[in-house]
Amino acid sequence: MNLQPLKDRFSSLQPREQLIIGAGGALIMLAALYVLVLAPFYDAVKSRSERVAQKEGDLAWMRGIGPEMMALNATAPAAGSPGTDSLVVLVDRAARECGLSTALTGQTPNGETGIRVRLEAAAFDTLMVCLGNLQQQYAVNVESATIDRSGDPGFVNASLVLKRAGT
């Protein structure tokens, strides 16, 4: 692109006209700088500040409710007793109660007090609730877990090793 004709045209202008065009160009450059660089930066800083304020509010609420939760935890019954049912029966029962029976694809013993469990396309939230129920009601803990995303959002494939507490 040949800019020589533009340079010649600019040179032929009066000094006052050159000053006006130069000032206009500088204003356009400043406006472009603001629109392309500074405005997105300010928006990002503002959204981060709002997020921090929200997190601080959440933290204050958690600190406020902490003593109440500690009091409730102190009065809650202890974790359930292991009982006499086998882990296979307990896991199967818990999966049916939680609605995960179709996701339960395999159970194999793991030593004398453990069991390996495989779930496919299980709802993650439901799985966590089910594991919590097993721990609270039957004192069955998760010894190890491998959880991977499945094809659908919110669903996972999981390999778990469960063990009775205290054994």
Give the arrangement of secondary structure elements.
Layout: H1 4-11, H2 15-75, H3 87-98, E1 104-110, E2 114-123, H4 124-138, E3 140-149, E4 155-164
Antiparallel strand pairs: 1-2, 2-4, 3-4
Helix pairs in contact: 3-4
Low-confidence stretches: none
| Gyration radius, rounded | 33 Å
Which percent band covers the strand fraction?
15-25%
Largest sheet descriptor: 4 strands, antiparallel
Shape assignment: elongated
Describe what you observe in this structure.
- The protein has helices at 4-11, 15-75, 87-98, 124-138, and strands spanning 104-110, 114-123, 140-149, 155-164.
- By secondary structure, it is of the alpha+beta class.
- Strands 1-2-4-3 form a four-stranded antiparallel beta sheet, with helices on one face.
- Helix content is 57%, strand content 22%.
Quick recap:
With 167 residues, the protein is α+β, with helices and mostly antiparallel strands. It is built from 4 helices and 4 strands. The chain has a 4-stranded antiparallel sheet, covered by helices on one side.
List keywords for this structure.
167 residues, alpha+beta, four-stranded antiparallel sheet, 4 strands
